[in-house]
Structures are given as C-alpha cells and as structure tokens.
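Per reviewer request, we include the raw input and output of the structure prediction for the construct analysed in the revised manuscript.
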Amino acid sequence: MNKRILVAYATKCGSTAEVADVIGHVLTEAGEAADVRSVADVKDLSPYGAVVLGSAVRMGKPLPAATRFVRQHQAALAKMPVALFSLGIAMNEDTPEHRTTAQEYLAPLTSAVQPVAVGLFGGKVDPATMSPLWRLATSFIKEGDMAPGDHRDWQAIRLWANTLVPLLNKAGRTEG
C-alpha cells in the first residue's frame, strides 16, 4: 500500500478548503488514502508519500501560510512528489494569458518545490466570508473579476484531481 497523500490548503474565506475537500474525495474514490488538512495543522510530513498543496491567491501571491508551509517543510517536500493548485480571480476566465498570470503568481511556491502538476482555478468572491476591509473594498464592484460570485469550475477541479494519482505515483511515491 502506498503512503498517504496529504491535501493541504491555505485559505482566508474557506473557498480553497472546499476545493481541497473535493480533491481529497476524488483521490479517495480512486483508491488512495488522503488526508485533507489546513497547512496550519500540519507539523510532520513523514506519514505522507505525496503532497497536494493549495492556496488562495491574494494581491498576486499565494497566502503567507502556504509560503511558510513550503519553507518549513522544504527538505521533506524535496523528497516526495508535490502538486500545487491555486484559486484566484486571475482564473475567473480561463484564457492563455490568465493561465500565464496565475502561474506567475505561484512563483513563491514553485521556486522552492518542483511540482508534478499545477491546477489553476477561478475563485469565489463572497462578501459574507470576507473581512470588513475586503467587504468594503469589493462592495462598489458590480462587474468584473472582483464582482461577487463563485467562479470555481467544479468539473475542471475534479478532472485535474483525477490526473494526480498516476502523476504522483510516476514521480516516485514510496511504499509505506
């Protein structure tokens, strides 16, 4: 039996956690043992043979918690397959230009780990889950990327998650 897969996430408003849950569910349906946990709750990577790390993107960067996670666990992550995913307004419309921008936003993570897969997804703008400052900032926006709405493409997320098992196994998950 292969070691477990950790699906770790950094989120501000809960949207990335919801996506991580779906990815974990898809991996479990594929016969893998997967744990879905906030990066803040992960202290040790030794039980895992692979990591899928997701972060919301704010102001053109992954959340600081995701960057800290990679920095704290960089040695362990270098020895196992890692996949990355992000959610953000850059991908609210899937175009080649937006993919390039979203990929660039992941540079703080991809400069520290070499992912076997990268998933880039639209985000969710829900004023009810935002801090008062963000809620005020977005309250005047009625159209465009920051307009309230759920831009996550659940089919694309599930399809991407289904590609992970062979990629993580091909990249050398070890027996546990």
